Amino acid sequence: MQAAFIPLSLFSMIACTAGAEPSRDAVPVNTNDVAVDPHAQVESAAGDVCPSAGPCCESHPGVGCGDPLCCEQVCSHTPFCCEGLWTQECAGIAAAVCDVCDTPFTCPQTGDCCTDHAPDGGCEREFCCDLVCGRDSYCCDGEWDNICANIARANCPNICVCDSFGDFDVSATLDLVDVASLLTCFTGAGNSPVAPGCECADYDGDGDADLNDFAVFHGLLPQ
Ligand SMILES: [Ca+2]
Ligand SMILES: [Ca+2]
Ligand SMILES: [Ca+2]
After folding, report:
1. CA of residue 188 to ligand 2 center, whole Å
2. Radius of gyration (C-alpha) of the chain in whole angstroms
3. How far apart are CA 186 and CA 208, in angstroms?
4. Is residue 146 domain-shared with residue 132, that is, in the same domain?
5. Do residue 98 and residue 42 come from a single domain?
6. Rounded distance from Cα 74 to ligand 3 centre (Å)
7. Are residues 108 and 136 in the same domain?
8. Which ligand number lies closest to the CA of residue 173?
9. Could you tell me if residue 168 is inside a domain?
10. Statement to judge: residues 113 and 74 lie in one domain
11. Is the model's pTM score more than 0.90?
12. Other C-beta atoms within 10 Å of 141: how many?
């Protein structure tokens, strides 16, 4: 019996020792590091990193990015963005999900201000585009429909009167005759309205014929 007891005790001890997994409790750990749940790890990484100094919408050799919400959104999707590098993939996710990466709408856009060109928003003359969208944001955020065109016709001087900017003699080309007319029509900045017949000297539709208009005209001249 004695002989049998000793091996049994040894077996018990060996079995007990062999069955013991390395215990987390036995190792002193920082409680902040105990994150068994993978999701909790993600939140921890994002919470520690977000926001960082890096730009959200382009790749950079750091972790996280400067907009807290965007940073957390991206890192909850791809933890590496807060743990490794903010790669092109991270920037791509940001572009898809973060409002901060939306390109702000800016005037001018393509499209005639004086006619309905839905579904596109905005129009090609900056001042008129800004003016109309300031009155009805749908014209830039949504579509430049007939309502927008009507606002332009009523409120943007000159551009809906002149069929083709700079072509004073309606010859379908810009030439020396037009250059002479433009110089005659020149008012300088803020001096509106232009003289009758000078509507085609006001490119941006702000009422005057100034250096801004002249610069556009110069760019359109045959080189
Ligand atoms: Ca002409
Ligand atoms: Ca002007
Ligand atoms: Ca002008």
Report:
1. 7
2. 34
3. 8
4. yes
5. yes
6. 45
7. yes
8. 1
9. no
10. no
11. no
12. 11
Give residue 103's pLDDT: 78
Q: Report the percentage of the chain scoring pLDDT > 90.
A: 70
**Number of domains observed in the structure of the chain:** 3
Compute the distance from residue 156 Cα to the ligand 1 centre, in Å: 23
Q: Nearest bound ligand to CA 165?
A: 1
The fraction of the chain above a pLDDT of 70, given in percent, is 80
pLDDT in tens, 177-189: 999 999 999 999 9
Domain limits for position 125: 104-156
Binning pLDDT at 50, 70 and 90, where does residue 197 land? very high
Q: What is the dihedral of CA 187, 191, 194, 198, to 10 degrees?
A: 30
Name the amino acid, one letter, at 74.
Answer: V
Q: Examine the domain organization and report whether 87 and 113 are in the same domain.
A: no
* Number of alpha helices (DSSP H) and beta strands (DSSP E) in the chain: 10, 0
Q: Which residues surround ligand 2, an ion (CB under 5 A)?
A: 189, 206, 208, 210
Asked if 71 and 122 sit in the same domain, the reply is: no
- Cα atoms found within 13 Å of the Cα of residue 8, Cβ hemisphere only: 5
Is 4 a domain residue? no
60 bridge partner residues: 86
Cα of 186 vs centre of ligand 3, distance in Å, is 9
CA 132 to ligand 2 centroid distance, Å: 17
Distance 189 CA to ligand 3 centre (A): 7
The alpha carbon of 86 and the centre of ligand 3 are apart by a number of angstroms equal to: 45
Whether residue 116 lies inside any domain: the answer is: yes
Ligand 2 midpoint to CA 139 (Å) = 22
